[in-house]
Amino acid sequence: MSFREGNKDHTGLLSSVPERTVRVRIKRVTGYITIKGIKRLGHGVVRVGEGNPGIQRLKWLEICEPGVIDKTRYLVRSGKHTFEVDEFYGENEGLILAEVELSSEDEEFVKPGWLGQEVTGDARYYNSMLMKNPFKNW
Q1: Cα–Cα distance for residue pair 60/48, rounded to 1 Å
Q2: pLDDT tens digit string along 24-34?
Q3: What share of the chain is helix, strand, coil (3-state, %, to 5)?
Q4: Which of 11, 33, 103, 130 is the most exposed place for a label (fewest CB within 10 A)?
Q5: Where are the beta strands (DSSP E) in 43-93?
Q6: Bridge partners for 35 per DSSP
Q7: pLDDT, tens digit, for every residue of 110-125?
Q8: 63 in helix, strand or coil?
Q9: Is pLDDT at 50 greater than 70 in this prediction?
């Protein structure tokens, strides 16, 4: 397992409607707007991202829905996969989530010993829900 230093980021939502979530994320000096939407035909999610360096990016968070997510993201290599491990702060202090991108739902991967309970599909762990019902309230 290899480990890369994490980067703090701040995330807010312009829209938390499940069919079209619009996320603002500030990572170091770059701001990103990501739109996640359910495909009209079939299953799955469509993602569109846009990076924008510059000072204006901080203003993006001012127009977001209440409840900004503060976290540090670490990239942790395990076998042939890289896990994105998020350590949360503020209202979600104490929560750590790991995510791995697979090429298909049935792709096999080695689960590292440090990996905890499977929470895929549990809406409580979605950023949009953590903003509305933070981990500290569970």
Answers
A1: 17
A2: 888 777 778 88
A3: 15, 45, 40
A4: 103
A5: 45-53, 69-78, 81-88
A6: 22, 48
A7: 899 999 999 998 999 9
A8: helix
A9: no
With a CB cutoff of 8 Å and minimum separation 6, the contacts of 69 are 10, 11, 12, 88, 90, 92, 127, 130, 131
Quick one: CA torsion of 24, 26, 31, 32, rounded to 10 degrees?
A: -40
d(CA 94, CA 88): 7
Longest CA span, the chain: 42
Block residue for tokens 């890369």: 4
Alpha carbons 118 and 85: distance in angstroms, whole number: 14
Structure tokens at 13: 């939502």
CB 11 within 8 A of CB 31: no
What does the pLDDT look like over 81-109, one tens digit per residue?
Answer: 999 999 999 999 999 999 999 988 889 89
Phi, psi of 20 (to 5 degrees): -155, 85
> Which are the contacts of 46, defined by CB distance < 8 A and separation ≥ 6?
35, 36, 37, 38, 39
pLDDT at 1: 45
Query: CA Rg, the chain, in Å?
Result: 16
Name the one residue in this structure whose structure tokens are 């791995």: 100
Count of helices and strands (H, E) across the chain: 2, 7
